[in-house]
């Protein structure tokens, strides 16, 4: 018996190196924080094992050596001060010994200060959207596992349900700060190798950070029960050496510029019904079928069907409006920043002519643009997922104002009317500002300040111009002078000073922007 107890104790107290190879144990990860979390886990595990050995050892020893068959007689004692002190003090000291390293690790995990790169992570049903604040581009990352594998029509791949069309790309040796939020319900961004697991709550911002020293591909998934396709919301992070990451960033900017040019050119193209239906089916299967089903029947009581629906066979304008702007209070998202004008036109055409709807309507990109849904998303060619060895392509391009030559705008001093400034300002605001400050100007509590009724938007114009032109150091507020023309800055400042009941009456012109700071 004593020999068995000795072997059991040795097995429990084996070095952590052996435990790291156990398939059921916690993974060590690839970051300093994940290493500290693993070390903390193993420390507390072995403390618990030691307590278990002592407690169960004492119990087994007492049962064997003080049993009635050996003539043992139970001792009669109670209210022992020494025993009371011992079983109070010993657990207290054990808890303190565990709390000190745990507290240090938690404090380090919650310190995103002095980050080299900030990325906003937005969860949507059921995809992730990544905004690179420091580089002014972003994209959606969507499950890439083929439906045929999900439905059992073909063998499952190596990374079944853990593969996406566009990877989140990070550099090595740089501290990356994540801002987590959600468009709809609560999601949770979890990458075990980084020891990062943070909830994404609608209307709020949570923070996390990581610093990865080892290049590679790391996988995770949504860790919150967020709805029907919770299990189809993976995360794939590709970590590149610093030089390769910088080259990737420049490539994304070029791709975004090309996408904007292609989107602009597409507005003058007329696609045939066959071309629209073929492209529309691809877009529908990639972006709509998860809710509305491949056969357009929807899920009764949850997601409405499109076959013979009032939207799909009713007025085209209403159909465009709900696809472009979504429907508040429901799972129907706004696709104006996820799909290009050509893709929106194609998918609306498909929905109006598939499953026996047969309206005969052929919607073109120009119809989407005239409806107010000029998209900043990638062109139609990006519907197909890129090869795994290709850099992920950004799905958001520059806004129309960013594509214009800044020098041309700076040389124009022609005043604009208040109506023209407000119309253009709203367009710029929705493209460049609403992601943080929200479309209603209310901001995000604890993360991004509101503009509605704020001292900036209702105070001196010079202060307002200064923060838009030069940004605000130490915050996520960027300098927009390299990104927007003088006329666009004038328009968006005018819009912010007069929207949402701010009503200052101020009309800012491009000349005011050019003369600011002189």
TrEMBL record:
<protein>
    <recommendedName>
        <fullName>Cytochrome c oxidase subunit 2</fullName>
        <ecNumber>7.1.1.9</ecNumber>
    </recommendedName>
</protein>
<dbReference type="InterPro" id="IPR036909">
    <property type="entry name" value="Cyt_c-like_dom_sf"/>
</dbReference>
<feature type="domain" description="Cytochrome oxidase subunit II transmembrane region profile">
    <location>
        <begin position="18"/>
        <end position="113"/>
    </location>
</feature>
<dbReference type="InterPro" id="IPR014222">
    <property type="entry name" value="Cyt_c_oxidase_su2"/>
</dbReference>
<feature type="compositionally biased region" description="Polar residues">
    <location>
        <begin position="390"/>
        <end position="399"/>
    </location>
</feature>
<keyword id="KW-0249">Electron transport</keyword>
<keyword id="KW-0349">Heme</keyword>
<feature type="domain" description="Cytochrome oxidase subunit II copper A binding">
    <location>
        <begin position="114"/>
        <end position="251"/>
    </location>
</feature>
<keyword id="KW-0186">Copper</keyword>
<keyword id="KW-0732">Signal</keyword>
<dbReference type="InterPro" id="IPR008972">
    <property type="entry name" value="Cupredoxin"/>
</dbReference>
<dbReference type="Pfam" id="PF13442">
    <property type="entry name" value="Cytochrome_CBB3"/>
</dbReference>
<comment type="function">
    <text>Subunits I and II form the functional core of the enzyme complex. Electrons originating in cytochrome c are transferred via heme a and Cu(A) to the binuclear center formed by heme a3 and Cu(B).</text>
</comment>
<keyword id="KW-1278">Translocase</keyword>
<feature type="compositionally biased region" description="Polar residues">
    <location>
        <begin position="361"/>
        <end position="373"/>
    </location>
</feature>
<keyword id="KW-0813">Transport</keyword>
<feature type="transmembrane region" description="Helical">
    <location>
        <begin position="43"/>
        <end position="64"/>
    </location>
</feature>
<dbReference type="InterPro" id="IPR002429">
    <property type="entry name" value="CcO_II-like_C"/>
</dbReference>
<comment type="similarity">
    <text>Belongs to the cytochrome c oxidase subunit 2 family.</text>
</comment>
<dbReference type="InterPro" id="IPR036257">
    <property type="entry name" value="Cyt_c_oxidase_su2_TM_sf"/>
</dbReference>
<keyword id="KW-0679">Respiratory chain</keyword>
<keyword id="KW-0812">Transmembrane</keyword>
<dbReference type="InterPro" id="IPR001505">
    <property type="entry name" value="Copper_CuA"/>
</dbReference>
<feature type="region of interest" description="Disordered">
    <location>
        <begin position="361"/>
        <end position="414"/>
    </location>
</feature>
<dbReference type="InterPro" id="IPR045187">
    <property type="entry name" value="CcO_II"/>
</dbReference>
<keyword id="KW-1133">Transmembrane helix</keyword>
<dbReference type="Pfam" id="PF00116">
    <property type="entry name" value="COX2"/>
</dbReference>
<keyword id="KW-0408">Iron</keyword>
<keyword id="KW-0472">Membrane</keyword>
<feature type="transmembrane region" description="Helical">
    <location>
        <begin position="85"/>
        <end position="103"/>
    </location>
</feature>
<feature type="domain" description="Cytochrome c">
    <location>
        <begin position="420"/>
        <end position="500"/>
    </location>
</feature>
<dbReference type="InterPro" id="IPR009056">
    <property type="entry name" value="Cyt_c-like_dom"/>
</dbReference>
<dbReference type="Pfam" id="PF02790">
    <property type="entry name" value="COX2_TM"/>
</dbReference>
<feature type="signal peptide">
    <location>
        <begin position="1"/>
        <end position="19"/>
    </location>
</feature>
<dbReference type="InterPro" id="IPR011759">
    <property type="entry name" value="Cyt_c_oxidase_su2_TM_dom"/>
</dbReference>
<keyword id="KW-0479">Metal-binding</keyword>
<feature type="domain" description="Cytochrome c">
    <location>
        <begin position="275"/>
        <end position="355"/>
    </location>
</feature>
